[in-house]
Write a structure and sequence with these properties.
mainly alpha
């Protein structure tokens, strides 16, 4: 990782920590802010995937998957922004499903890293366990208005700290011969 990328990674993680702290201390705006933020983020990544498909991926084998993923993300983002006045349930659905998918993918990554004897598997396993724990606790306390938001913010702070730690680790450069 280059120095500029390390700096940007740390800055984004610090912004995430700051945003999570704001949502913990001002829970009145939490659902609206998260619903709107999730919606805008999904629209942004959906447009990015669609543009990537139009510029590069349409000529690749399996490139239509980028178009499909982009359309789904764009649609979910527009839906989240359109109904953000019903923010509580939409936000909880998005938070729980996104963190469940991230935890499952983290588990797959952990297994692959363990097989490759990569020492980062422990960090990925810790993040995976925290993700599953957050999903389970959100499902248990789904009727509450503030507990899932606090859990999400705590998980965001935890993940951001792990990102900062991994940004300062030395990375090996592998040369292919």
């Amino acid at each position: 990782m280059s120095k500029a990328r390390r700096i940007m990674t740390v800055l984004f993680a610090l912004v995430a920590i700051f945003g999570a702290l704001i949502l913990i201390f001002i829970p009145d705006i939490a659902f609206d802010a998260l619903a709107f933020g999730i919606g805008i983020t999904l629209v942004y990544y959906g447009v990015r995937y669609i543009l990537y498909y139009l510029t590069h991926a349409q000529h690749m084998v399996g490139g239509k998957w980028f178009l499909l993923i982009g359309l789904i993300m764009f649609d979910m983002g527009v839906f989240a922004v359109a109904v953000y006045d019903k923010a509580q349930m939409i936000t909880l659905i998005y938070i729980i499903s996104a963190n469940l998918i991230a935890a499952v993918l983290g588990l797959i990554r952990t297994i692959g890293d363990k097989k490759d004897n990569n020492p980062a598997w422990k960090l990925h396993l810790a993040q995976c366990i925290a993700g599953f724990t957050q999903v389970i606790l959100c499902l248990i306390f789904i009727r509450s208005a503030t507990i899932p938001i606090c859990l999400y913010c705590i998980y965001t702070i935890y993940t951001s700290i792990l990102v900062i730690i991994s940004a300062f680790k030395k990375t090996a450069i592998v040369y292919v011969q």
